[in-house]
Amino acid sequence: MKRSFTNLILLLACSVIATAATNVAPNSSLVFKSQMHDFGRVGINDGPVSWEFEFVNESDSVVNIIGAMSACGCTIPEYPHEPIAPGQTGKVKVTFKPYGRPAEPFEKTITLRTSGSPSVVKLTVKGESVENVKIWQ
Predict the structure, then answer these.
(1) H or E element that contains 9
(2) How many other C-beta atoms lie within 10 A of the C-beta of residue 114?
């Protein structure tokens, strides 16, 4: 009797762990075509450059982008504020402003917080800020 009770407890524990594991980590929510974009060479005086990161909600539930944060004021994210339904596509626009920046390579990361899994998504833009050369005729 004691042995069957122990086996029953072990069976229940395994069942609870297996159920919890499937509920905690559902399929990925927002799946991006790419999480990195290279602007290449960007003239400091040419003005801002932008890129739109495309995604699809591949989960079975609605996902919200709770916020987007960049580490630098020269990089500005724009994201959908409305709920993203299963199967729905969307875009996160990232704008890099080179004006006043040093002429050097750059790599900027945008951190998205979502209600899905994973709850944090990182998008990166990179390139090289260069001096504009004007040819006078």
Answers:
(1) helix 2-24
(2) 21
pTM confidence score = 0.75
pLDDT class for 100, splitting at 50, 70, 90? confident
Question: CA distances (Å), 84 to each of 6, 33, 66, 118, in order?
Answer: 46, 16, 11, 15
The SS3 call for residue 95 is: strand
- Sheet with 30-32: list strands edge to edge: 30-32, 49-57, 89-96, 75-78
pLDDT digits (tens, 9 = 90+) for 55-79: 999 999 999 999 999 988 999 999 9
| Whole-angstrom distance, CA of residue 128 vs CA of residue 98 | 9
Burial zone of 115 (CB within 10 Å; 0-12 exposed, 13-18 middle, 19+ buried): middle
Length of the chain in terms of residues written: 137
